[in-house]
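In response to reviewer comment 3 from the previous cycle, which asked for concrete evidence that the modeling workflow produces usable outputs, we include below a single protein chain processed end to end. The sequence was submitted unchanged, and the resulting structure tokens are shown without manual editing.
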Amino acid sequence: MTRRSIFTATLFALMVSGCAAISAPKLPYPAFVQAADLPDMFVAVLPGVRAKPLAGNLRTRTSSNLIELPADWKGSTGGAPGKSVEIYVLAGELKLSEFVLGAGAYAYIPPGSLGFNITTDDGAQVLYFLDDIDASSVIRSPMIMDSALIEWVETSPGRFTKELRSDPGSGARSWLLRIEPGAESPWTSSSVVREGFMVAGQFQDSECFNGEPRTWQYTPGGYFLRPADVLNGGPESTASTETIWFLREQQPGEESTSPVCFYTPPAEDDE
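The workflow returned the following structure tokens.
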């Protein structure tokens, strides 16, 4: 996702946020967003389903959504030619084709795999992402898994990850991050756009903007769409309780750390 796409997503979030809480720091990109503050909208590709639109690009029709599948709902994955669908189940249970997906289940449906039926008896809350496919992608078959069957891998004291998808061709990846109370959070940046949704916990985070920390609390339903090379974390970032994030990057990226929050001039806008 380019910086222009980030700008489009920011405008999209502002348009739909209405009277969202105004106490969180104001930034030129989506951060410290709480899905509960966003109004409901219908999802065209999922008839009868309402969603909290987290971000999107109106030109390319890509989007990130928190959706509520009502009880006794029947439909399909809602994909489109040239688009992939990514699903993470937050609560409830649904059936994707013959596979039963409960809380923590993950599915990736690439283009050419359309026609996957979805049903739910009692309803489900789901993260739903519609993305342009990268021609360099190697994963061209559907992936369906239960994240509970994947072991947590400790990456630093008090911080653990579960890899859900990692495409060796495009570099796109999705993963879970668990942060324990007391774990240090150094100033960290990624060389590509990073998207995150808080699944559980309570976490105070800082965004480094114009060389100054902007700090606020995330609770379940918290969301950000952070541009490349933007620092976040720092000494004020801490988990009050065990915190779990669902994270995504759509390009190969490298993570780097810094001892301080410092100002960096904005990069030229991508075409």
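The radius of gyration is 18 Å. We consider this sufficient to address the reviewer's concern, and the full set will be provided in the supplementary archive.
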